From TrEMBL:
Domain of life: Bacteria
Assigned protein family: Belongs to the small heat shock protein (HSP20) family.
Source species of the chain: Candidatus Buchananbacteria bacterium RIFCSPHIGHO2_01_FULL_46_12
SHSP domain location: 26-138
PANTHER family, alphabetized: HEAT-SHOCK PROTEIN 20 FAMILY MEMBER
Lineage summary: Bacteria, Candidatus Buchananiibacteriota
Protein name in the entry: SHSP domain-containing protein
Length: 140
């Protein structure tokens, strides 16, 4: 049988974290979409699923190497909310802000939506690209 160490100083903080998570979920009617971020030699690429979202309703901005995605999904059905058995399809505004892993040239960013996937390509800034440095040696 393993012993569980009692940590009285962490319990209040766990309750506080749970309170803020619950409050945030209640107050924020929107949601944060999932994103994938990866790097190539030349670019930082961000992908986000757009299922049910019109690309025209998405705003993309880059400032200080932080990418911000904002938008809104609309639900067009006329069903009274009291008649739902289960309601899992999200509707409303969304917001996502992520720090990019490298410095980028925001003015040259490109975005395209294909088959329900938004792909944002951000070219890396020159100083962020890997540089090879050769070591000089004096052979005698």
């Amino acid at each position: 049988m393993a012993l569980i160490k009692w940590t009285p100083f962490l319990e209040p903080f766990e309750e506080m974290d749970k309170f803020f998570e619950d409050a945030h979920a209640t107050l924020a009617k929107g949601f944060a979409p999932a994103v994938d971020i990866y790097e190539t030699k030349e670019d930082v690429v961000v992908e986000m699923p757009l299922s049910g979202i019109d690309p025209k309703d998405v705003e993309i901005s880059v400032e200080n190497d932080v990418l911000t995605l904002k938008g809104e999904t609309k639900k067009e059905s006329e069903v009274d909310e009291k008649n739902y058995y289960r309601q899992e399809i999200r509707a409303g505004s969304f917001f996502r802000s992520v720090a990019l892993p490298s410095r980028v040239v925001a003015d040259k960013a490109e975005a395209e939506a294909v088959d329900g996937l938004l792909k944002i390509t951000l070219p890396k800034a020159a100083e962020a690209k890997a540089k090879t440095v050769k070591i000089k040696t004096d052979k005698k």
